[in-house]
Amino acid sequence: MTICRQGKGKRMISFKDVSKHYPNGTTAVDHLSLELPEGGITVLVGSSGCGKTTTLRMVNRMVEPSSGTVSVDGRDVLEADAAELRRGIGYVIQQAGLFPHRTILDNIATVPLLLGWGRRKARARAAELLELVGLPADSGKRYPHQLSGGQQQRVGVARALAADPPVLLMDEPFGAVDPVVRTQLQNELLRLQGELRKTVVFVTHDIDEAVRLGDRIAVFRTGGHLVQCAPPPNCWPPPPTTSWRASWAPNAD
Question: Reduced to 3 DSSP states, what percent helix, strand and coil does the chain have, rounded to the nearest 5?
Fold first, then answer.
């Protein structure tokens, strides 16, 4: 069992000996102990089926652990009301997952409205976030199909930030856009993080993306095993080169 403790700051998210088993015998996560501090970006990286998305989804109870404890801000997530927990955690997925029948402004305002904010306040917050993520104000009147893929991902980030959650979960959020737009979105995330200092858990298959974005990189292997968690300069395997990818990927399967 690999235990990862990050620095001396307050732990926002904690996994204590967490496992996830399915009825068909599959072990998605195996005895994971991992502590993530406030205000940093932790990137979970590894091959398909290694448990990184399952790990992320246990934070907001989209998946519940079979054993062990997942805590957010010192509270076991299983003791929280699932809907209430999710409203307090931002969640960004690939291809944004926007409501096609709602305007962009109303998509962003979704969680504040669920929390009981008035429509005027929720829309005002949505308008602020449009500017924050670099979209023009008039895009708020449009519908998702009228925006490019990169613009939709920016809306997805804005929606996740709408209620100002302390934790932001990002599950391969930039995986479906072209390389140029992906770089732009990575830059935007780093800019936003510099301003907002959220506790971010970011899942990716892309080693270069992990190194570029992460304050820490947690490397998983098939079977849900955490094999290392460290800052990018200290992370095994060596720095992100073609030879790294070539040597690491087969071992991760």
Answer: 40, 25, 35
Report how far residue 8's alpha carbon sits from residue 32's, in angstroms, rounded to the nearest whole number: 20
For 2, the domain range is 1-83+199-253
What lies within 8 Å, CB to CB, of 158 at 6+ separation is 108, 126, 129, 130, 132, 133, 135
Residue 232 belongs to domain with CATH number:
3.40.50.300
Is residue 234, in this structure, part of any structural domain at all? yes
For 85-101, the pLDDT digits (tens) are 998 999 998 777 889 99
Domain-located, residue 103: no
Whole-number Å distance between alpha carbons of 236 and 183: 24
Residue 69 dihedral angles phi and psi, to the nearest 5°? -130, 130
Q: How many domains does the structure of the chain reveal? A: 1
- Dihedral through CA 92, CA 68, CA 9, CA 172, nearest 10? -20
**From CA 64, how far away is CA 202, in angstroms rounded?**
19
Global pTM value: 0.85
Edge-first strand listing for the sheet containing 3-4: 3-4, 27-37, 11-21, 67-72, 75-76
Query: Do the domain assignments include residue 155?
Result: no
Asked if residue 187 is part of any domain, the answer here is: no
> In degrees rounded to 5, what are phi and psi of residue 43?
-100, 125
Residue-wise pLDDT tens digits, 229-250: 999 877 755 444 444 444 444 3
